[in-house]
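Comment thread on ticket #2218

A.B. wrote:
> Attaching the input chain for the structure job we discussed in standup.
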Amino acid sequence: MSTPETTAETSAASGAPSGRELPDYAPVPRSALGPALNEQGYYVGRVERNLYWITDGTYQSAFLTTSDGVVLLDAPPTIGHNIQRAVDEVAAANGVSNKVTHLVYSHHHADHAGASSLFDRSVARIGHEETRRLLLRDDDPARPPNEETFQDNRTLEIGGERIDLAWHGANHSPDIVIHLPDHDTLMLIDIVNPGWAPVYIANLTEDIPGYLEAPANALAYSWKHFIGGHLGRLGTRDDVMLHQQYMADIAESSRRAIDTVDPTRYFVKYGENSWAAVKGYLDEVAAVAAGPVIEKYTGVLAAADVFTESTTFWVMESIRLDLGYGSQVHP
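C.D. wrote:
> Ran it. Output below, let me know if you need it in another format.
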């Protein structure tokens, strides 16, 4: 019986490194990490007064205890049943109700709403009108569509507590701002990962111009605590401003690369294979643009060396296609 080689080979199917050939990345700054998880795999902590947050180290949720019951903000499936365990823990410690009566969706994606079905159908589910449309389209039993919708703004008054919901236009997806003014807290999901760079293509963003505007929209509100939906700690205004500068640097560097990288050699080499030429050219533009940003933010934002080139490619494409930068009309 033969055994497969496990040296510096690549998989014929994927082209990805196989065996032991895995890349090394920069250490994660300690400032990017959050509190330790308990034996059940979650952490629950007070944000301010009766507002709490939950994390499994990768995803985040939050809840507000009120005299009318518990208002849950997102229901990530990776936290799953630990959401109710966290609510039970806080309710028992404070002598309040542990019954979830309201669930606010930040947006429709399954990774933030996929545990919704764990809660009773009688729970009032609230979200943007576009979130309802997309949940109806997706027809996922794990994510019952929100019955209550709004278009631009809505203020919830539940058990004497105030939650302001607002939609400022498309960004990562139709994500909304969830502002709790009496708790100095703002929740905006899949835009800023406090302490970390965005993952693939700017957190898998559908609308880059809206994504780039979102931090300014967030900073226009009054708040001290930021819930970004991902990874292990809460954020601050400084985190949002750092992300804003990181994305601005990517955009500026992308424009310089579009102006300076010459595609000629790729079209000469690949001839009739236009897609090979396009790939070579755009990959080079992204790499050239990402290089100085990676150098600047490695050690500042965790995984800047892992995902910056991917995000830069998506920003560069938006600059070309959404804004028309570098577009030339044939004479």
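A.B. wrote:
> Thanks. Noting for the ticket: The first helix runs from residue 82 to 94.
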